[in-house]
Amino acid sequence: MSLLLNPEQTAARLPWAPLVDEIDALLRDDSVSVPPRIVLPMAGQASLFAMPACDARTAMAKLITFTPANVGTDRPTIQGDVTVFDVATGVRRVILDGPTVTARRTAAVSALGARLLAPNVDGPMLIVGAGVQGRSHIEVFAAALGVRDFRIASRRRASAEALAEVARAQGLRAEVVDDADAALADCPLAATCTPAQDVALRATPRADAFIAAVGAFTPQMVELAPALCQHFAAHGRIVVDSRDADHEAGDLLQAGIDVGALPTLADQVRGDRAGERRGPVLFKSCGWGGWDLAAARLGSATTRT
Fold first, then answer.
1. What pTM did the predictor assign?
2. Fewest CB within 10 angstroms: 22, 43, 239, 260, which?
3. What SUPFAM superfamilies does the record point to (predicted)?
4. Where do you find CATH 3.30.1780.10 in the chain?
5. What CA–CA distance (Å, rounded) separates 54 from 56?
6. What are 143-157's pLDDT values in tens digits?
7. CATH number assigned to the domain covering 106-288
8. 130 CB-near residues (< 8 Å, 6+ apart)
9. CB 282, CB 213: distance < 8 Å
């Protein structure tokens, strides 16, 4: 009998450090197969996402809705499920909460990117956006990379204050800042976790900066100013999470950058770092079914028979 897990139960099966390691392991697994995801546009700029993937032992299908109109309401923008199957028997093992999987795997991918690419992981870390992803990035960078000091910027100061309180309750240092661009000068680490409806970061980064940009995942969405993206291309390097970013990375596409020529996180994990150079690093994440498969592998491990 399969298990239907709620958000709390799903999170408990996806502890931060093991999830980061599972994503790393997945990128080294030659049996992984991830077809392009299906994105079905719906009314009101909403979308239905269908994302299947499998390896030699585990198969999963993620079905979620993304509803921008829910921003600012008590309804989540992402809703749905991740159903996990056993490849050998076809048996359904578990159904994980889709928004929880999305929140945790996205932040864990950023942490893996920082572990592999960041010139300086000492912090402080700037979090731009005080929603679910802002919180997830604070938690994973603290748990998996040991960052203890955070700066939080949000268009709604009340949201930033609330997230800062959550971070302090976890024993972390957290300060609300009004100007994200000004704070970037003091932060070697940053993550942009906004709804990506407008530019949220413009400032020139430090030479030892690592920025994970996760909010924009369509060609129309944007968080980073074009000049900022072009600065990374000229003076540092840009790495994308997967080849899906070639047609989804709105920040980079709107900056006129040839996304298809950029290396992926898999290239870094597998040691293919041709042309690598020093300087600030931009890690552009758009999402990929492989990240959900990594979460499915970890989240279903206790239900294998």
1. 0.93
2. 43
3. NAD(P)-binding Rossmann-fold domains
4. 3-101+290-303
5. 7
6. 999 999 999 999 999
7. 3.40.50.720
8. 152, 154, 156, 159, 160, 162, 163
9. yes
